[in-house]
Design a protein that fits this description.
Strand order of the largest sheet: 6-9-10-3-11-12
Shape: elongated
Helix content: 55-70%
Structural class: alpha/beta
């Protein structure tokens, strides 16, 4: 829990003053029954109106004090808990943003969303409740017990007989509740993942007429959450009636035995009234403590999940970078006997003994069957993953020697899965370079062959894109992502099958633009179509994680059987398409 102290420290005045203000309510609650007893015992029998008025005015003063303390305490509690949660959520999000791809592979998106929202909210609620009740409940318990014992020690034995039973019940309930709350949070993860996938991919669901399947899948996850929530809430359901029954039973016992003492003259009516109130306060304080403990048990499940993220060791950092100020200047790429695995405990390699060099300004094409390791290879250049064996060098320097910021600033990457964000087209393009001028933005857009269709929209570059760019076609999305990368003016540009949805004529114009826009930059192009890479200075043929061929288009046609088979297969497909 020491980890969370830093989220309390900036707001310590609220954390200190809030509970102290709540103690003013405790003082008032303890004094009020005694003052009322004085009115009943002294003022009423004697007909002393002045005494009754004075006591009444004092009680009004105490009530105002309680009002001020209660409002102030609640304000401090809300302010402190909201600030605590805001800072924690910020650090949690910052931590996730620093995750490597390997770290992200260990969590589902739904789980991270739940931890950033629901779990942090659970902590916020328990912090607020603790500030309001943590001093108030024990203070009321101790104060009421002292007043009750000093008023009638014999009658206080009734309370002494009930307290152990309540304490045992609370302990049992908490021991049962904690594991159930942990399960419930996991079910929330599952539901969030199902919702996210269903809403993000709703167009695919509709196109395959799988709405019924997804509704059933959601229903199963929703039902699991309901059942686990009910199991957890049964703890809450059980304890409240038990506490209420105990409170009523104890009050009845006090009234019965106290009434007997009043009849024989051993106790005044006002004292019995006050004593009954103190009994109620004792039991109410125990109820408040039990609620705090129950909420804390649920929050502890959230604490463990949040701590798991905060303590996740990021396996890819630049802490050991030898030259953090170095920037990518030329764009030379070199792989020296590089091997890579996604799962380190497996012998099977995704990439095995990869060696090649791409000189500044060259275009390198990579072609191969699905699963041959093409995307894995290029992801090692900007250190989205680290190689297990060998070295990846940029400008003759190991990529591990760069800071992640400077290395990735020098690399423009259009991933296989094109991603656009909610906002205007211009805002999306400026991800490449935030301070780019309008002419620069237009030049990049024209080079990517995006300007014609953007200009056709009524709002042009101010057209609002839906989440993920759902209101543009696949080819338009690819061209916008290429324009965004071009605007960055990278020394290394990586296109990971990023023109697959673009027709061959448009793709050819994009490649022509590269020759002028990025003539000094190194281009790495992954493609399925031979036409996309045939003009490259060097083409790598990958098969099962190994380079099986390297050379120009003409050289590979003569010397590499696999490349020749790919070319012949695609030419046959083109002829069939033309015949149709």
């Amino acid at each position: 829990m020491k980890r969370y102290g830093k989220y309390i420290k900036p707001y310590w005045p609220f954390f200190l003053v809030g509970p102290l203000l709540m103690l003013t309510e405790v003082v008032g609650e303890v004094l009020m029954p005694s003052m009322m007893a004085d009115i009943i015992n002294t003022g009423v029998p004697d007909g002393n109106t002045g005494f009754i008025v004075r006591q009444g005015l004092m009680m009004v003063g105490v009530a105002i004090m309680m009002l001020i303390g209660g409002v102030g305490g609640n304000y401090c509690a809300c302010r402190a808990s909201a600030s605590f949660a805001s800072d924690l959520r910020h650090d949690l999000y910052h931590k996730v943003q620093g995750f490597s791809f390997a770290n992200l592979d260990t969590y589902t998106t739904g789980s991270l969303v739940t931890r950033l929202t629901n779990d942090v909210t659970q902590l916020q609620n328990v912090v607020r409740m603790a500030m309001i009740m943590l001093l108030r409940a024990p203070g009321m318990l101790i104060g009421a017990i002292i007043m009750a014992v000093s008023m009638n020690p014999g009658l206080a034995l009734v309370i002494a007989a009930v307290l152990p039973v309540l304490i045992i019940a609370i302990v049992i309930v908490i021991r049962i509740g904690f594991p159930r709350f942990t399960i419930m949070q996991k079910k929330i993860d599952s539901l969030n993942s199902t919702i996210q996938e269903g809403l993000t991919n709703i167009r695919v669901i509709k196109s395959f007429v799988r709405s019924g399947h997804e509704i059933k899948r959601f229903g199963d996850a929703n039902r699991d959450l309901k059942e686990s929530s009910l199991k957890a809430m049964k703890v809450m359901i059980a304890i409240m009636p038990v506490m209420t029954f105990t409170m009523n039973f104890t009050t009845l016992a006090v009234v019965w035995f106290g009434g007997q003492q009043v009849i024989v003259g051993d106790m005044l009516v006002g004292d019995l009234t006050a004593f009954t109130t103190y009994v109620t306060q004792i039991l109410m304080s125990l109820m408040m403590l039990s609620m705090i403990l129950l909420q804390s048990s649920r929050a502890m499940a959230s604490v463990r999940r949040i701590t798991e993220v905060l303590e996740t060791e990021v396996d890819l950092t630049d802490d050991k970078a030898g030259d953090r100020d170095r920037t990518v200047e030329k764009g030379k790429i070199e792989f020296r006997h590089v091997s890579f695995r996604y799962y380190k405990n497996r012998e099977e390699k995704v990439l095995d003994d990869i060696t090649f060099t791409a000189n500044p300004g060259e275009t390198v094409g990579i072609i191969g069957s699905t699963g041959s390791g093409k995307s894995s290879l290029v992801q090692l250049i900007p250190r989205l993953y680290d190689a297990d064996e060998g070295q990846v060098l940029v400008d003759d320097v190991d990529v591990k020697e760069y800071s992640l910021y400077h290395l990735r600033e020098g690399v423009g990457m259009v991933l296989q899965k094109n991603v656009l964000f909610s906002g205007t087209i211009e805002e999306n393009l400026r991800w490449g370079q935030e301070d780019a001028g309008e002419e620069e933005l237009l030049r990049a857009s024209r080079a990517a062959q995006a300007d014609p269709f953007v200009q056709s929209f009524p709002d042009g570059y101010q057209t609002e894109l839906g989440q993920g760019g759902v209101n543009v076609s696949g080819g338009q999305k690819q061209r916008l992502c290429i324009a965004r990368a071009l605007l960055k003016k990278p020394r290394i540009l990586i296109l990971d099958d990023s023109t697959s949805a673009v027709d061959t004529a448009t793709e050819a114009r994009i490649r022509e633009a590269f020759a002028t826009t990025l003539k000094d930059s190194t281009k790495v192009i992954i493609a399925q179509r031979v036409s996309s890479v045939k003009d490259a200075d060097r083409i790598l043929v990958l098969e099962e994680g190994r380079i099986t061929g390297m050379g120009t288009h003409e050289e590979l046609l003569r010397e590499n059987e696999e490349y020749r088979e790919i070319c012949e297969s695609q030419m046959a497909q083109q002829k069939e398409a033309q015949a149709v």
